[in-house]
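RECORD TYPE: protein structure
NAME: Arginine--tRNA ligase
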Amino acid sequence: MLQQWAADALKTYVPLEADQIMGLLEIPPSAQMGDIAFPCFMLAKQFRKAPQEVAKDIAGSFSHPAITAEAAGPYINLKFDRAHYIPLIMDELATENIPDTGKGRKIVIDMSSPNIAKPFGIGHLRSTVIGAAIYNMYKLAGYDVVSVNHLGDWGTQFGKQIAAYKRWGDDNAISEDPIGESLKLYVRFHEEAAEDETLEPEAREWFRKLEAGDEEARRLWAFFVEVSLKEFNRMYKRLNVSFDYTLGESFYNDKMQPVVESLKEKGLLEESDGALVVRLDDEGMPPCLILKKDGTTIYPTRDLATAIYRHDVMEGERLLYVVGNEQKLHFQQVFSVLRKMGMDWADSCIHVSFGLMKFEGKKMSTRRGKIVVLETVLDEAVARALAIINEKNPDLENKEQVANAVGIGAIIFGDLKNHRLNEVDFSLEEALSFEGETGPYVQYTYARTQSVLTKGAAMAGTAGITANSALPGSDVLGDSGWELLKLLTRFQEQLQRGLRNHEPSVLARYALDVAQSFNQFYNKERIVTDEDQVRSARLNLTRLAGLSLSRTMQLLGIGTPERM
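PREDICTED:
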């Protein structure tokens, strides 16, 4: 918005197209310097002058009825006439439509993907909430988006699970706590396997039976899948996350042999110590294992079949895999094999990786049983949020509902505010604070905007400002209000930046910036003032700030209670 107006004003004086100018515009480090800055470095060669001289020449000849230009070293700083632009910006924001840049383009997102027969740990949170936010962002931009929960319901770990159950399983204990008991069995398997050399071959044999369709193996597998899905779906409901498809690894069982045959036909398979691999030496990677010695499939085989299905059947133009950093080599190998198979669309497969999540300094491992169960963390977060509400606002209606939104929102925001590639050391106490860079801080700010609007509605003359209602020379918002208004114009820019990088933290940080900017405005300016025109403009700005916060948090999968 402001960038477009600035580019249109500059294009008469700069030998560049408006789009090129927009790509160069910057926000000055200080509001006193101006509203938009244009760097002149790339014009120096064309003008055969130092950038400082170019800036001085352009600023000296610049003329616009509502924008002034001033040279500051190699930059041209532009200042917008507030009386002219405040009503224009407000009208634009009131009718803002997000361009459907993705119309007709289909994205398939692989996200969450927990393992069957394991508790839903807090380690699964990152893939789930990062994937859900990216899904929402693409949806808003007009894309046809499909989310897939690629359940870990196949593989050698099932052989281990069945072997452990057959040796030590207690049907009564499993009936009472199927997931908890399954985890205990899995952990015991790894503990005992360190001493008992017969366990690993036994597990491999059970998985071979499972792949061969053995009746007992299939029955036990189906039981573990059923009880796990019930557990997972409860967690997804609490996180307000849903999927278009839940397709486990087992779904692709009948789709793997054609992949193996295709690799053979193309002469890509080689034998290595009895196993079949695709050599990737030319790309500086170790061989990609396709079939193990015993003839059973392995992850790359299934992921090749999965990618082909998502491209050919689901018709995904771009395939995203929201999976941790530790799988980087795996996906590099899979995408490389796809390219060798002649799949030119392999370059549209993207591993949206993320860093490890620790819980208060502790790394989690299912094999050793050191897993922080997500439900326990959610319950604790909601309980703490309720305690804070009881202390600060004991008469609040719907306290449990608000505590749920605040507690769970705190956990989601506590993850998404971090750059996804960074390691996250999650602290519940920090995430639940109503001060600082937290979800509750943003939610509380939204509730504050609604409180101000309720108070303002009780007074006359609260209609929104129009293009004719700001008197020439008037500054109805004050400096802090003007800074907030400018920030609100940047939502689409932030959305596009987040999409380019598959980075929800861009929007989380934007929500924090808007919340901080609104609170500065709230503290510095009297919003519900006696002057009709000033009150009208400031209430409208408050309304726009609330809408921006609500929309941004909704994209992140977080609720915004009206009162807190």
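COMMENT: The two ends are 33 Å apart (CA to CA).
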